[in-house]
Amino acid sequence: MTDYVQATLLRIFIGESDEFEGRPLHEAIVLEAREQGLAGATVLRGPMGYGRSSRLHTAKILRLSEDLPIVIEIVDAEARIKGFLERLAPMLGSALVTLENVRVVRYGHDAGLD
Q: Per its UniProt record, what InterPro entries does this chain match (predicted)?
């Protein structure tokens, strides 16, 4: 079996039109993650989805295509993710936030997270 390191996957579900202090929210979150020295962040744009309001967001309907679903994924050590979440609290508004235990098999040239 391959060696691995335990880590935490943070997923933040927001809308493409969500903002924080005049900047797209996904951009503000990724820049904060970088500033905090987290292992990395990825922003995924979904072609379709809905949230708590049940309002459908899809690229197929032109008038709704401005607010497509966005998922931000960040993996790092559990303590670092928890600290990061505390810093993000003022930004998140109606976002859905999930945490998941993951096993990191490879991170760049080494198998661990700092």
A: N-reg_PII-like_a/b (IPR011322), N-reg_PII/ATP_PRibTrfase_C (IPR015867), UPF0166 (IPR003793)
Residue for token digits 């379709």? 48
Which one is the CATH code of 5-104: 3.40.980.10, 3.30.70.120, 3.90.180.10, 3.10.580.10?
A: 3.30.70.120
What is the pTM for the complete model shown?
0.85
Instruction: DSSP letter for 59, please.
Output: T
Distance of CA 111 to the CA centre of its chain: 22
Check: CB of residue 81 under 8 Å from CB of residue 99: yes
Beta carbons of 83 and 24 less than 8 angstroms apart: no
* Pairwise CA distance, residues 10 & 13, whole Å: 10
What is the residue-level pLDDT of the chain in tens, covering all 114 positions? 578 899 999 999 999 999 999 999 999 999 999 999 999 999 999 887 777 766 666 666 555 456 789 999 999 999 999 999 999 999 998 899 999 999 998 887 664 565
